[in-house]
Amino acid sequence: MNKLFKLFLSLMLLSLCSSCNDEWTEEQFENYVSFKAPITNEGVSDIYIRYRGNEKTTFQQPLLVSGSKTNDKNRTVHIAVDPDTLNMLNYERFQNREDFYYRELDSRFYTFSPSVEIEAGENTSLMDIDFTLKDIDMVDKWVLPLTIEDDPSYNYVANPRKHYRKALLRINPFNDYSGTYSGTALKTVMEGYEEETPIVKAEIKSYVVNENTIFFYAGNIDEDRQDRSNYKIYATFDDNGAVTLYADNPEMAFQLNKDASYTINEQMDEIRPYLLHRYLTINNIDYQFSDYTMVPNVNINYKVSGSLILERRLNTQIPDEDQAIEW
Hints:
Elements: H1 2-23, E1 32-35, E2 45-50, E3 57-65, E4 75-81, H2 83-94, E5 102-104, E6 110-112, E7 115-118, E8 124-131, E9 141-148, E10 157-158, H3 162-165, E11 166-174, E12 180-182, E13 186-190, E14 203-205, E15 207-210, E16 213-217, E17 232-237, E18 242-246, E19 255-256, E20 260-268, E21 275-295, E22 298-315, H4 321-324
Parallel strand pairs: 1-10, 2-11, 5-9
Antiparallel strand pairs: 1-3, 3-8, 4-7, 4-9, 6-8, 9-11, 12-14, 13-22, 15-16, 16-17, 17-18, 18-20, 19-21, 20-21, 21-22
């Protein structure tokens, strides 16, 4: 009886193992085609593009074929711009605050092929998007909304889940000086109240203008202000360590009190020896401006002084600049 039981148990185990092995000879999932474009808590996917003026910069957007086995046929994936999804996102997130809306990137700033090939034997492919960002105004939040088109005649099926079939690419051009600065050493005080506690912001975001120039908003003004475009402070960096601060709106009564300068310091990370920390410090910031729109018919004058520090962390093992920077 004991021998019969052992024989029965062995046969059962053999049958079970055989069925498991047979199971993996067949595809376990649908071969859906998807974007690899994970979204942030803002509902978009941030991408970083080196600003080169009239020269093009190519960003490679990954496409994936899902499945438990290697893709076994050539697939031609059709891509299109998708303003409807962007419109839906804007309304769901911001309702009637249209000044917060993401703007669809103008077609003059990019080109891409409407079809991408995924070859048999490959589960991934890269879609080239060529950006030429000269004269882009970063007061607005630019997004390139893409979708994978679906049709019964196509030799693929687009992923039915929205966040895999769509790619809402938030465009972030960068140069050597742009990024989010630490603002804890920059003080903003109202004129006549210099002895009072100054306004200090933890972070001050800067935006690309061209290869050597950025802008940030004056004082404590940021992206939440509907009239933020009136209060841009430009900073142009030269090769000798000087920074020229200026404004192009005479109504804000910008006045520079001192010439600014910048320094760059670098050091390797003590824990991760391949990681380079680059610190850019803007020194001797000292200017005045007038907030002429916060209160109708009243000019509120501010003095801003101190310094800003930008830290960039660069993985020296990665050759591609946009991926080497730990954003």
